[in-house]
Backbone:
């Protein structure tokens, strides 16, 4: 439900970082979103057009990479990837896992920009 | 025209996270234990907090509360009847509290004069999970009327909690509450989490809860 404010925050951050690339056009914005980030990717995409309208990001493509939950299994002594978010047990040995290593990410990974050559 | 990839690697909620880190530092410096209470609307957060505040004050502890709702100051008035300092945060449509709202509403309070600060979040099991308020302990509440599968439906919130409180235990039986199933589901999503089974009405489970608070306050 707070996807619009998340998208607005993405627009702000990207706009700030564009200061170093004057006149650049944003082609693509890539996000990393964990399976436990409480964010609905469809809603992000729905809000994207509205939030970018009239900004330097207008027309840019939003690409969201979803990251699965990774827990550390003490019994197996290694990190294990969960298939979903309905059971926090090691898929190998069945032991409950409390040590989360990945899954809450909500970050801007990178942006792709077209830089305009300086006019002579 | 040249195409370039710019690595940003920036947290989207970085602004909130930075404010929350500042709040956390000020809570620690002041020696106040801060708890963020989250649940669905109607779980009984306010009734549970009313009882908690009353009991803490009766035992000579200094406790205060911030309470978030979209509209009205009804909850703040209820909580203030305990005698504790209380402030209402009206979000006017926003579905969660964030660190900026907390900072703004703490203005003028001397945290050093408090042992406990409770933040009653907006009733919502989705959005508040993304917003760090600088709290030491996130408490998720679940009432016996809500369905034992709530943790499975809202895994993000339950997985991010440090303690769980089951409320309205006094009406568990007429509601057909399956206690074993509820405990199992909470543990499936957050293995090993501390669970308190309480009733704000009868006081059941409150001693264990208050004991936990005192222990956590002691190790700040």
Residues:
């Amino acid at each position: 439900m707070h996807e619009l404010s998340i998208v607005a925050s993405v627009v702000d951050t990207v706009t700030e970082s564009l200061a170093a690339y004057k006149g650049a056009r944003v082609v693509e914005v890539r996000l990393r979103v964990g399976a436990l980030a409480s964010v609905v990717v469809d809603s992000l995409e729905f809000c994207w057009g509205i939030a970018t309208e009239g900004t330097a990001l207008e027309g840019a493509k939003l690409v969201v990479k979803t990251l699965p939950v990774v827990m550390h299994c003490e019994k197996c002594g290694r990190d294990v990837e969960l298939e979903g978010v309905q059971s926090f047990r090691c898929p190998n040995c069945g032991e409950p896992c409390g040590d989360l290593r990945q899954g809450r990410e909500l970050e801007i990974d990178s942006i792709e920009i077209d830089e305009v050559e300086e006019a002579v | 025209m040249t195409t370039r990839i710019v690595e940003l690697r920036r947290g989207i909620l970085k602004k909130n996270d930075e404010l929350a880190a500042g709040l956390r530092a000020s809570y620690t410096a002041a020696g106040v234990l801060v708890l963020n209470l989250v649940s669905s609307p109607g779980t009984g957060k306010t009734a549970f907090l009313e009882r908690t505040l009353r009991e803490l004050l009766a035992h000579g502890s200094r406790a205060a509360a911030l309470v978030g709702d979209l509209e009205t100051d009804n909850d703040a008035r209820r909580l203030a009847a305990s005698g504790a300092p209380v402030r209402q945060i009206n979000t006017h449509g926003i579905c969660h509290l964030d660190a900026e709202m907390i900072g703004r509403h703490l203005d003028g309070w001397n945290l050093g004069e408090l042992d406990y600060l409770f933040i009653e979040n907006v009733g919502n099991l989705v959005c508040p999970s993304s917003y760090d308020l600088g709290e030491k302990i996130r408490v998720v509440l679940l009432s016996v009327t809500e369905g034992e599968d709530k943790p499975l439906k809202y895994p993000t919130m339950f997985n991010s909690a440090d303690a769980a409180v089951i409320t309205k235990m006094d009406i568990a039986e007429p509601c057909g509450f399956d206690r074993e199933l509820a405990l199992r589901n909470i543990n499936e999503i957050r293995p090993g989490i501390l669970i308190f089974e309480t009733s704000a009405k009868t006081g059941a489970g409150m001693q264990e809860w208050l004991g936990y608070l005192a222990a956590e306050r002691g190790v700040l």
